[in-house]
Amino acid sequence: MPLLFLAMCWLLFGASHSLLAGHTLERLFGQRSRLAFNLIALVSVALPISIWLYLPAQPLWSEPPAWRWVHHGVSLLAGLGFVHTLRYYSLPGFLGLRAETWPLTFSPWHRWVRHPWYFLMLVAIWAQPMTDTWLVSALCITAYLIIGSRIEEQRILRYHPGAYAAYRRLVPGLLPWKGCALDNTTRRQLETQAARESDPALT
């Protein structure tokens, strides 16, 4: 029963996070909608995290002590990867500290996978020592990332129906199983097409 409650809290967070994304909060907060979205997400994710920390965790299997260094090493690599991705994002814009419009561009990470942050989150999540409570959390977060990425892409397709659809056909969504799937020439072509879709005057 406690594990079911934990799963429900994670799913409630995922549903609310997806429903509030996009333009849902703009009517209430205007240009501060992104900041409001991030603050609401921070507060709402505290519930499942608190429950996960509170519940007693049972390891699903025993591991040699040396394996903890493997867990730490993979988690560290995922963290360093995340820090590297920040070179290609406007952090003030993402956090909602500054109102910005983001053109559709494809960073070096996006040549391998459509959602670099989600990929790195999956690596970090599944690299942890596995307990019953963490398995439930990992499964719920993974389900949210899969469903949330689809919802996010539907929003992008409204503004870039041609460029992003072509990009989706080339590059995997969450796992970079194709390697570097987007060459520089195609990247530039898709970015030019996306700019034209954003501004019809460029066509």
Please name the defining characteristics of this protein.
single chain; about 200 residues; mainly alpha
How would you portray this structure in words?
There is one protein chain. Helix 8 (163-170) runs antiparallel to helix 9. The chain has helices spanning 2-20, 26-29, 33-54, 67-85, 91-95, 116-126, 132-159, 163-170, 184-198. The termini are far apart. The relative contact order is 0.14. It has one domain. The protein contains nine helices and no strands. The model has no long low-confidence stretch (mean pLDDT 90). By secondary structure, it is mostly helical.
Q: In summary, what is this structure?
A:
The chain is built from nine helices and no strands.
Give the helices and strands, then pairings.
Layout: H1 2-20, H2 26-29, H3 33-54, H4 67-85, H5 91-95, H6 116-126, H7 132-159, H8 163-170, H9 184-198
Helix pairs in contact: 1-3, 1-7, 4-6, 6-7, 8-9
